[in-house]
Amino acid sequence: MNKIAFMAIASLAIAACGTTGTNNVKVLQDSTIKIHDEIMPQIAHFDRDAVKIDSILNNLKTLKAAKADLDTTTTKKELGILKANLESATDHMMDWMKAYKPDSTDIKYFEVELQKVSDMKKIFDTVSKESQDKLKNF
After folding, report:
1. pLDDT tens, position by position, 96-137
2. Rg from Cα positions in the chain
3. What is the DSSP secondary structure assignment for residue 50, as one 8-state letter?
4. What is this structure's pTM?
């Protein structure tokens, strides 16, 4: 009888450990996707901002005529950098999504992915603020 009880308890303990690991993976996976889902809609804004930048750059002469104090050289440089930052953030997200393996069961994998997407959120927040600040006057 003791052997049977021991085997039953051992089986339950092993099953519980497996469930805990699975739960931890699920929690990390859900956290990763939650952050992804927060920042993914910003790509549409980044795309619109990039189009706006192109329009501004194509119409600098007209803008200069309307705003005599506009430094077109600085504006061109700043907007070029901003557009590159917008595109870089978007490309970073696309690359991350292509490489993401949602079916993985490796807890270490999801720990790394959660860190990657958390870092990407910081980048997106920074670029979004930069875009708002630089484009508010146009």
Report:
1. 999 999 999 999 999 999 999 999 999 999 999 999 999 998
2. 25
3. H
4. 0.80
